[in-house]
Amino acid sequence: MLIVYIAIIVIVPILSQCIRTAVEANVKPQGFISVIPGLFSLTYSENRGVAFGLFQDGTLFFAITTSIVIIVFAILLFKNYKKSKLFSVAAALIIGGGLGNLFERIFLGYVVDYLSLSFFPPICNFADYCITAGTICLIVYLLFFSDFLKDGKKKKTQDEQA
């Protein structure tokens, strides 16, 4: 199964860069293309910050922070991939999305965002959605399938008895 997780890690940034290239060629000149009127559009945006455009012009800081997060999740993935498929998919999506955005930060100095939903104001990109999906999977794993919360309850019970 490790090969599947590695494939996700490799494919996500490649897809992210392919989509970005297509967006730069087709959307950037116009700035905006309505796909589903009133619901979904492609809107070219250069994001020099992080989520929601916060903390502009911190490229070096964000590149370093993203690299650390990628390394931590890679270590966790390779240590735990046999234990949980859900955790492994979550980690692979977070790593792949992080790499997709990291490449853009390093080589462009910004991240190209283009996915615009009328009910969700921030403009995002494919890598952002992979990171979001990975984070949701990670939360589900931690809440329902891991011993993360159970260990805390056991420790409290043991401490209370002492």
List strands and helices in order, with pairings:
Blueprint lengths: L1 H25 L5 E5 L3 E8 L11 H22 L4 H24 L2 E7 L2 E5 L1 H20 L2 H14 L1
Antiparallel strand pairs: 1-2, 2-3, 3-4
Helix pairs in contact: 1-3, 2-3, 3-4
Task: Please tell me about this protein's structure.
By secondary structure, the chain is an alpha+beta fold. 65% of the residues lie in helices and 15% in strands. The protein is built from 5 helices and 4 strands; from the N terminus they run αββααββαα. It has a 4-stranded antiparallel β-sheet. A hairpin with a 3-residue loop joins β1 (32-36) and β2 (40-47). α1 runs parallel beside α3, α2 (59-80) runs antiparallel to α3 (85-108) and α3 (85-108) runs antiparallel to α4 (126-145). The longest helix has 25 residues, at 2-26. The chain is globular, with a radius of gyration of 18 Å. The N and C termini lie far apart (43 Å).
